[in-house]
Amino acid sequence: MQRRDRLQILHDVLFAIQLKGPKAKPTHILYKANLSYKALQDHLSEMMRQELIIEKVLEEKKTYSLTDKGFKFLQEYQMVREFMNSYGF
Amino acid sequence: MCNIFPIPTWFAGPDLAIEAAVFLLTVLITFFSYSVFRVAPDKKIKLLCVAFGAFSVATLMQTTHRFVLLFLGLDGTCSSITLQNVFFLTGGFTLIYVLLSLVAITLFLYLTLRARERVFWLIFVTSIVSILLSRNILPVYFALGTIYLGSCALFFISNARRIKRKTASSIALAFTFLTIAWASFTFAWVNPTFYVYGHIFELIGFVCILANLLMVLHATKR
Question: Are B16 and B66 in contact (CB under 8 A)?
């Protein structure tokens, strides 16, 4: 099985959040994106820093939703993938 | 010190036009790469943008340098002050051009080697030191550039053979042309005709990179 690169993981996490709708819980993302808890936390905080997702806390429970930038990433992922592949990255 | 290219006299105007065309191409490539980076803020894409941006500014320096030299040459006067200005300008422009384009080429090499960040600095610093310590800055820079671009071209050729896609082939072709261009520039001091070949291959190389970006955009819009 081929190892996923950072960009693929980013896509998988965003896709998992999109599937669950506007309020995706960490457990759901964890299963759908096939990540460990520690890896997921690292990726989520990085994605929040890059403004791809936003975190909301409701009744002491964290939920995540996509920003416009996150939606755009999912829409144009194929283009980015093709660009990266052409350079062998 | 070899800071000026031995240019064939008939090519003194057309080379400026080709340099300007290369500058426009690199600006377009940087713009497209940046638009990809804005969608996916990835470190590798960011470094590609920086590399193309550095190439763009370096080519702008080269074009301005050529323009100033051509302008001073057409003036018809050759006073000692003009000559001093030419030497001062040429030294400054050459140094900036070499520094910026070496940043770009070393970044390409670093990305293809998939090495740690310190490898980039190691290659860059040793290259800069060896270029600055040499008596002939430009020939040494182009010789080193040929080796680095050749290494990148080999990586991109193996990538194109592995994934068998037009976009990957265009990048492999582009870096092969750029390697030939840099090798031609290295031999320009042996025979000035190589300076002409260098410019043509450089232009074709950047056209291939732009074609790759257009193919990427076209393929994903379908």
Answer: yes
